[in-house]
């Protein structure tokens, strides 16, 4: 399904539905399509918004998680949003955590799936064989429990991205920023409800990471999805949406 990308005041975003706002944050190598099943499921009851994070547009010296959090703050102000639910996968979860620390009056609740912020086993410090399509294909498949989730379209997209010198330099800078920025000591200060939805077979942010988040966040709940990797909303969309529905319904009481 193709979603209309709106462009206003320097922001690019997708917005579907009406009602209480759900803001979805994509990961480092993520795309709008990653959230397709969530948009389709929730746009009938919620105002679902996905800002396109400017990962490739930042000056190299300021490429980092905190800069993306500041961008999100500007986007929220532009859209005049208040008391919304923030959902983030991978790097998007990390951005959501940093934003929430400074804006708990704005965020009603937080949902994290395979979030960085404590530990991640990403691509590593470089892409030694980025011209090799099969190497990139294996790396994308590594993200999922079922390699078939890594469609040719997805692999093609990542291959094109990592073979763009401008983009790959920023990807590596952003990944290093995320790894350096460990939030273990700050998580105790996030007092709002947090829902963790985690793939049992996540090898990028393994199950131990979810357990650590659950221990360090004061008001957290942890939901596991079996036979699932780093992007549960893509690999197990029905189960992901079920956990999300249950959490959102509990917030109403």
Features:
253 residues; alpha/beta; Rossmann fold; eight-stranded mixed sheet; 8 strands; globular
Tally of separate domains:
1
Give the fraction of residues assigned to helices.
Answer: 25-40%
CATH topology value: Rossmann fold
* Main β-sheet description: 8 strands, mixed
CATH architecture: 3-Layer(aba) Sandwich
- What distance separates the N and C termini? 34 Å
Query: What does the radius of gyration come to?
Result: 17 Å
Name of the level-1 CATH class:
Alpha Beta
Overall structural class, as computed from helix and strand content, comes to alpha/beta
CATH superfamily: Alpha/Beta hydrolase fold, catalytic domain
Strand order of the largest sheet: 1-2-4-3-5-6-7-8
SSE run: EEEHEHEHEHHHEHEHH
Proportion of residues in extended strands:
15-25%
Tell me, what's the shape? Answer: globular
Q: Count helical runs.
A: 9
